[in-house]
Structures are given as C-alpha cells and as structure tokens.
Design brief:
By secondary structure, the chain is an alpha+beta fold. It contains 9 helices and 17 strands. The chain has an 8-stranded mixed β-sheet with strand order 4-3-5-6-7-8-9-10, sandwiched between helices. The chain has a 5-stranded mixed β-sheet with strand order 12-11-13-15-14, with helices on both faces.
Length: 290
C-alpha cells in the first residue's frame, strides 16, 4: 500500500495501530531486560553516549515487524540508519529513547515510533514500559495516553512553570547548556531533567511539564513525541521560527510559549550551537524533513 492510499484519517490510524502494536511488544521486552545484565555494545558522540546490545536488538525487532507488515516502506532508525523505500511512507524509530536511564535501571526510557508520508509526520506512538503508558497521536486526530485524550493544563505565567530540558553528551556543550539553565532557573518554578526527549514532549502534552526545550535533537528523538504534543494543543517551534530543528526544539502550553521562547532567545548565544552543522535537520510537526 502506497502513501497515496494512506493519506486520510483511516490510513493514519492504520499506521498508528501498527506502530502501537510494535511498540508494545518492544516495551514488554524492555520490562524484562531492565535491571538485568545490560551490555554496552558501543558509544556514539562521546564515551558517555551509550549504545546497548538491547538498543540494537529492539530496533531489529521493530524493523522486522514493520517490514513484514509494509515491505515497501522506508526506515530511519537511530541505530540502523536509513533504508530506502518506494511507498512514500517512512518509519522513524528510536528503540530506546533514554538509553542511559535504561542502562542504570532508572525510569524514564521509552520506545518511539513515528510514520511520515513524504516527510510529513502523520502518526506517532511513544511507549513507556515501566509506567505502562502509551502515548499516541495522528495528525488531525488528537493525542491520547492509554486511550484518554490529552490536553495540557498550563500555568498562567512563566514564573509558575515547570520546564524540562536535556543536555548534550559532549562535555563542553553541557557546560554552555548549563549556563542557559542558570539564566532560566530564576524565571520559572523549577527545571526537570528526565533524560528522554520523547517522554518530555509527551509530558508537556499531558500537563506534567508546562514547557520543554532542548538542542541537538534528531528526527527519531522528536517525531512521535512532537506529534503527540502538537495534537494535544501545545505549541512547538525552533528558536526564531516555527520549525523545530537541531539547534533548538521548544514545546510549551500556549499560555507560556511566547514568554519561554523569549527567555531562551535572550541567552541563545550561550548554549544553542549545532553540534554537527553538516547533519542539521529541520522540521515542523506536521512537516518533518528527514
């Protein structure tokens, strides 16, 4: 089945159903694996940027399931990279978002699977194995958690906002990002660093965070969670326009979005450089370019 046959609400739900089925199977695997003998298979951007054997095994499982169901679709996986397809549909996969949490046996890791049609994210699922929560969205169809509709419950102003963020695996970048946090911390209720971008975005959608920002996100970090946030009614953007990208992604309740973006723009030169300009990605939830 090609993209033109999927480009409607029923088609989007079909893609979300497949993503959810695959994510829930992977979640059961991770629940059994967490706290066990987790083996480091490799590192990526730095010695602290871990890849476990479980990351690779879970991604291989997800890819096999999606390929069996839809053999002509393209794949973009964090661990396996890009594989072309002919249908116009691309699956964007993060097998364990929050690998460091998983490695240490901490809560706050998830499976993230999104489907894009010709670069436009139309369906996304984020499954949290330890909380048994599944966040799901389709474009124009709203967002849910375990079937319950999501709507962010934001504060009246930035001063009472709980804001999430994340940090680079590169030490010098973390230092500059810490300077941004030092500036922002006096303007808000508090900061949380949970360690998984997709869940951070879903938590903004669910009202557990009022806002979130992070630089250095890749498509697999933000495709599914970003769609959940957008479909719940949150605003998403980059630093200066409406395109979240590798320089910065901002998600927040509409009531505080402009204030949060202005506060971040005031210190933009301190912490929002692109780590690898040649790999920079630009996207908009609803228009993700990968």
């Amino acid at each position: 089945m090609h993209a033109r046959d999927m480009d409607d609400p029923d088609g989007y739900r079909e893609l979300a159903d497949l993503a959810e089925s695959s994510a829930l199977g992977a979640a059961a695997h991770l629940r059994n694996a967490v706290g066990g003998d987790v083996r480091i298979a490799d590192t990526k951007s730095s010695a602290t940027d871990l890849v476990t054997a479980t990351d690779r095994a879970v991604e291989a499982r997800i890819v096999a399931e999606l390929t069996e169901a839809r053999p002509h679709d393209a794949i973009l996986g964090e661990e396996s990279g890009a594989r072309p397809g002919t249908s116009g549909v691309t699956w964007i996969i993060d097998p364990i978002d929050g690998t460091t949490n998983f490695f240490y046996g901490l809560a706050g890791f998830n499976i993230s699977i999104a489907a894009a049609i010709d670069g436009r994210v139309v369906a996304g699922v984020v499954a949290d194995p330890l909380r048994s929560e599944t966040f799901r969205a389709t474009i124009g169809g709203g967002a849910t958690c375990n079937g319950r509709p999501l709507q962010p419950l934001g504060p009246p102003d930035l001063a009472r906002a709980l804001v999430g963020t994340g940090f680079s695996y590169l030490a010098e970048r973390r230092r500059s990002q810490a300077r941004v946090v030092a500036h922002l911390i006096g303007e808000i209720r508090d900061i949380r660093r949970l360690g998984a971008a997709a869940l951070d975005l879903c938590y903004v959608a669910a009202g557990r965070l009022d806002g979130y920002f992070e630089s250095g996100l890749k498509p697999w970090d933000l495709a599914a969670g970003g769609l959940v946030a957008a479909e719940a009614g949150c605003r998403l953007s980059g630093l200066t326009d409406d395109l979240p990208d590798e320089r910065l992604t901002i998600a927040a309740h509409p009531a505080i979005f402009d204030e949060l973006r202005a506060a971040l723009a005031a210190v933009a030169d301190q912490g929002f450089a692109v780590e690898d300009p040649s790999a920079r990605t630009r996207g908009k939830f609803g228009r993700l370019v990968v």
